[in-house]
Design goal:
- The protein is built from 16 helices and 30 strands.
- The protein is an alpha+beta fold.
- It has a domain at 4-11 and 28-192 and 200-257: Beta-galactosidase, Chain A, domain 5 (Distorted Sandwich).
- It has an 8-stranded antiparallel sheet.
- The two termini are 36 Å apart.
Length: 716
């Protein structure tokens, strides 16, 4: 909760001080960055390309002692491309406390921070040593200029500004035999604007190394509780440890996913390794309070303090926990490291309140809040999210230790009961997402953030009569998994199995959700097919004042009535995606036809989210709200589609061969496009264009887009 935080910033020296880099920001425009290898525990290798600057960060952890052991970090920097003298590069290594712990600097010549000794509750006594830079080979010393900053820390989320506001260009780089050059270095920190009188949160010690690339810099962390340390983990010892870990990673990756045996060439195997590694490298520990709005209270209140260890969708854009994303993340991580995955799932279930509700977005602590627009901070206690953690738990179930399942089971029961109690529809065995956007005049179709599918078309006029197909299918899955867990523990499973049978009944599913006019399964609700956005002039606030800009508002040209919602897309596929349809279902051919139809969901790059012939295909929801789940290709749903097709292709039934054929084509299209976009752009993306296949949305998105690894492995 209040751990000591070490980190790195860098600055390419130039006019105006250049651009200080620190946290992952999409707006920085880096051409490529990400972990190429990361085992989630002991080592990692990351490459960063910032213009023509190439940085490689590598770390190794050496377990030992009573506080986790030692770790060492190596930064390699070089310029690529144009010749001429290399611009100066400054590396800023820092360590900061955040609420507890002590730090003691050890200086050489008053400007070089050679080491820091310290103590914290979690780490005991430790020594952090900043070794002198060397040539890229690590053999020859490298000339550098050193600067030092000691400052009160106003909080980890403000460290970038602390350093930026401390920079001065009065310093001169004077390498022997070379022209003297002025550069920016940390000087004096006089406080951030508006922070006068606020007590410091901790202490910051910073070591700036300014040099001319190429160069290598190493940092070692040595735990005071390690006895009989073999030697410092630096230089040749660090290189040897990295080589051992890289070889072990390659072997474990092949044993786990078998891509070499499947004939994938080395570049494609490295792509898959990077996808897994970037998910592992983006994992974080968060601590703080959610801001919660309950129907029982007038004003939002802070929830109790909570801790969360989780993967994140995107290091740059979504560096926090999302409930429905995490279930997809854990499908991959459960294959790589089941114990790690079990720990993450337990953390999420520990966020449950006494009613059984888990907030769908976890914005814990000031660092997380600093990355979230204010309108998204509030979590509403009646709003659900798909229980995708159960997908991962189902995968972990055969090998999960019984004591672990016993601790989980009461939480799973409470979560399941919460869904049944709060998300039930008006008719028996129907379900409705709560929390649809109430501002009808603003949106072409009010959003359903709870579903995870945000702007996917639902009934045009939210009402208590709605029946949401995807939620009903999620509840069938939940009933199945709860039944499996109960049986494994010897607990009564009858009620869960009975609910599973009822929700999987194909006849009842037909009765409640088959839209004959659409030829597909659909939501049901109070719906108008004649809704559009039109510009509306706004009257001036007062006579003589200029009028505000026109606004796009919703226009309903036909009164809504209870009916099926005419939108064919991902929601329509849910009975197939979660394999509720029997292999001999008479509805299966229509589902496969919709998937394979280029007029509807099929593209050369994967399945689009909404059919091309759907009324809201690629339509903006507001003036500034472009289509999100209204056409683009999303990897998580394509993974579920491949999993389902693989299942139907393995089951006896009239559609077995057809399912196998579509499976082969879809798998090839999805893999080929994600790999092509990665090689061209350097990133996995949040979503992909259904017309060009290009990556779009935020990047890097090594959340559920990393499921491409399981697709390559055919691991469902």
């Amino acid at each position: 909760p209040s751990a000591v935080s070490p980190g790195l910033m860098w600055l390419r020296q130039g006019e105006g001080g250049g651009s200080l880099r620190h946290t992952c920001e999409q707006g920085d425009g880096l051409s490529r960055y990400g972990w190429l290898m990361h085992d989630g525990e002991n080592f990692g290798v990351q490459e960063i390309r910032d213009g023509d600057l190439f940085l490689k960060t590598e770390f190794v952890k050496r377990p030992g002692g009573e506080h986790g052991g030692d770790w060492s970090w190596r930064i390699t920097a070089r310029m690529e491309g144009a010749g001429g003298p290399a611009p100066l590069l400054s590396l800023f290594f820092y360590i900061a406390t955040d609420g507890q712990g002590t730090l003691e600097p050890h200086l050489e010549n008053r400007t070089r921070l050679a080491a820091v000794t310290g103590t914290t509750e979690e780490l005991g006594h430790f020594t952090l040593t900043f070794l002198r830079p060397t040539s890229e080979s690590g053999e020859d010393p490298k000339y550098a200029s050193y600067s030092y900053l000691e400052a009160a820390s106003p909080g980890l989320h403000h460290l970038t500004e602390v350093v930026r506001s401390s920079l001065s260009n009065r310093f001169v780089f004077a390498a022997p035999g070379k022209p003297r050059r002025r550069f920016f270095a940390v000087d004096t920190f006089r406080g951030l604007p508006g922070s006068a009188g606020e007590p410091p949160r901790g202490r910051l010690l910073l070591h700036q190394v300014t040099l001319e690339p190429p160069a290598t810099v190493e940092v070692t962390f040595e735990s005071g509780s390690v006895v009989d340390r073999p030697r410092q983990l630096a230089g040749g010892a660090l290189s040897a440890a990295l080589a051992r870990h890289m070889a072990a990673f390659e072997q474990r990756f092949e044993e786990t996913f078998g891509l070499g045996r499947k004939g994938f060439p080395p570049p494609q195997r490295r792509f898959a390794q990077a996808a897994l590694s970037d998910m592992l490298g983006g994992m974080g520990y968060f601590h703080g309070r959610s801001l919660v709005q309950s129907p029982l209270q007038e004003r939002p209140v802070p929830a109790p303090e909570a801790a969360l260890f989780t993967a994140v969708p995107s290091r740059s854009f979504f560096p926090r926990g999302f409930l429905w994303d995490e279930g997809f993340h854990q499908l991959l991580l459960a294959r790589w490291d089941p114990a790690l995955s079990r720990e993450v799932i337990a953390h999420w279930l520990d966020l449950m309140n006494v009613e059984g509700w888990i907030p769908r977005e976890q914005i814990l602590g000031e660092e997380a809040r600093a990355k979230v627009p204010p309108e998204f901070l509030l979590q509403h206690s009646e709003t659900a999210n798909p229980p995708t953690l159960l997908l991962a738990l189902q995968r972990l179930l055969p090998s999960a230790p019984l004591p672990y399942l016993r601790r989980l089971f009461p939480r799973l029961c409470a979560w399941y009961d919460w869904y049944n109690r709060t998300q039930a529809g008006t008719l028996p065995l129907t379900f409705r997402w709560r929390g649809r956007d109430p501002q009808l005049e603003r949106f072409l179709n009010p959003k359903t953030l709870a579903s995870g599918l945000d702007d996917y078309p639902r009934a045009s006029h939210p009402s208590t009569e709605e029946r949401h197909l995807d939620l009903r299918c999620w509840m069938a899955l939940a009933s199945r998994v709860l039944g499996e867990v109960a049986e494994r523990l010897g607990e009564p499973a009858g009620s869960y199995r009975e609910m599973e049978r009822a929700l999987s009944d194909n006849g009842l599913l037909d009765q409640l959700h088959w839209a004959q006019e659409l030829g597909a399964f659909a939501d049901y609700g109070n719906h108008s097919t004649a809704v559009g956005l039109r510009w509306q002039r706004v009257a001036p606030a007062a006579p003589g004042r200029p009028p505000p800009a026109p606004q796009l508002v919703r226009e309903v040209r036909e009164a809504p009535r209870p009916r099926f919602v005419g939108a064919l897309g991902y929601v329509s596929l849910f009975p197939l995606l979660l394999q509720l349809l029997r292999p001999d279902s008479p509805r299966l051919p229509a589902m496969l036809d919709a998937m394979r139809s280029e007029r509807q969901l099929w593209t050369p790059f994967g399945l689009r989210s909404l059919a091309r012939d759907s009324p809201l295909y690629m339509k903006h929801n507001t003036q500034h709200d472009p289509p999100y789940w209204r056409g683009p290709i999303w990897v998580n749903i394509n993974y579920l589609a491949l999993q389902a097709l693989h299942g139907y292709a393995s089951a006896n039934g009239p559609q077995q061969e057809r399912a196998a054929e579509i499976y082969r084509e879809l798998r090839h299209n999805l893999m080929a496009n994600l790999y092509r976009q990665y090689t061209e752009s350097g990133f996995l993306w949040e979503q992909y264009s259904d017309s060009t296949g290009r990556g779009q949305g935020c990047h890097p998105f090594t959340g559920w887009s990393a499921l491409v690894v399981l697709v390559m492995a055919e691991d469902y």
